[in-house]
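Exercise: predict the fold of this chain.
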Amino acid sequence: MNTTKKIPIVRKELLLPFIIITSLFALWGIANDLTNPMVSAFKKVMPELSNVQASLVQFAFYFGYFFMALPAALFIRKYSYKSGILLGLSLYAIGAFLFFPAAANQEFNYFLISLWIITCGLAFLETTSNPLILSLGDKETATQRLNLAQAFNPIGSLTGMIIAQVFIIGALRSDDYTTEAYNALTSEELGAIRENDLSIISIPYIALGVLVLIIMSIIIFTKIPKTAAEDKMGLSESFKKLFSNKNYKHGVIAQAFYVGAQIMCWTYIFQYVDNLNATFGWELTATYYNVAAMVLFLVGRWIGTALMKSINPSKILMLFGIGGVICSVGAILLPGMAGLISLVGISVFMSIMFPTIYGIALKDMGDEAKIGSAGLVMAIVGGALMPVLQGSILDMGGSGFSDVAILGFIPEVKFSFILPLICLAVVAHYGYATYKTSK
């Protein structure tokens, strides 16, 4: 008999801390999607940067997650969830405010350091908030509760996208010139444009730092319930239990593949659209389709969370994984707009994957969930590694949208989405394997 319908996702006495902690999910969503367009922004403002140098923006961002996740887990294990959240918010704010001296000195490396510090803070927040949400209520509704909290993450991501497009990309003076006209400007004119544009880049981050301080002040005066997970066991015992837990180890692998698929689909949709424009003479704007994908991602997460009231989370993960694979096949094989719609549609099926994998992998854990959370956050590094492989496929023809075909008829930009297909198949298999054992 399924009793999860009778159990509230969040009990009334835990509703306030749940709402406050859930706000953090939107907060790191803003940072993620405010930072994604910065690769192209810095390339425009600092044309002397190579593409590899500009891409260090993403490397600094994702490396912060990998670097700080385990120290964050050890910190909250020694102290408390609340201490971890406050330290994470402090690092977040410090990194955001460091954009001011970075802009004043016009030094790209300072921006990279600022982004790295922000992400170290985000690693603390993710390592802390995810297992905390799981523990704020009954075990039977833990995965559904985490999906509900994670549903606010894409709201933050959409906010970050809009801020980046309207207040940064759309406001850059360096984007108003052709390459020839820009190179023809005097050194004084170039200096004034660079100073203006770097200031524009820094302002949203400084404002974000102020918002973080406001939220941190609220959390300081909020009582975070002490949970059963706060009873400490030996560190060696925690690691031993984790390494012997197949469900957890496979969950970390599935998480790395999922994050890789997400970043590839949301990054290389621009090259996919460029290929369509070059092939059909269209003038599609990739940003609009990226925003559409994010909206579908948000809708999919709400739908998935509702379905978990009556359907096993592992089964939903399996079905959504299969749906993502089917859409990936469509993105590769279907011509024109049908292929693009398939690519955008992948986001519906990716929507529930991160929190569902997280909840399944940490299911029935006690204190080792704190260390286990670190492994699942470190798996975010898949978002830095997988896109490099896809980029190598894109370069087969010398560009992201050339006429070079693979297997005689598939352009390399479309064929490159075989990598997200494989990643989503791994996630579907994890759902299937854990569903079999949960029956």
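Check your answer against the key: Confidence is low (pLDDT under 50) at residues 398-403.
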